[in-house]
């Protein structure tokens, strides 16, 4: 069935040997002390603080 797609035999001596992957060595660093981490925390906290402030102002200025 696949005879029309058959090209030829594989020469196993020309196939390179399989190598195991060795990850490059990277220095370990504390991810919580990077400036990017501080920016991410601020991007999360500032909108929540603004929303909380808006709710507090609405609560105290609301007429009964």
From TrEMBL:
Keywords: Membrane, Transmembrane, Transmembrane helix. It comes from the Eukaryota. The chain crosses the membrane at residues 37-57. This is (thale cress) hypothetical protein. It comes from Arabidopsis thaliana.
């Amino acid at each position: 069935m696949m005879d029309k797609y058959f090209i030829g035999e594989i020469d196993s001596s020309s196939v390179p040997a399989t190598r195991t992957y060795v990850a490059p060595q990277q220095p370990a660093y504390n991810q919580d002390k990077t400036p990017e981490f501080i920016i991410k925390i601020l991007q999360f906290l500032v909108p929540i603080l603004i929303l909380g402030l808006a709710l507090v102002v609405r609560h105290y200025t609301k007429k009964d």
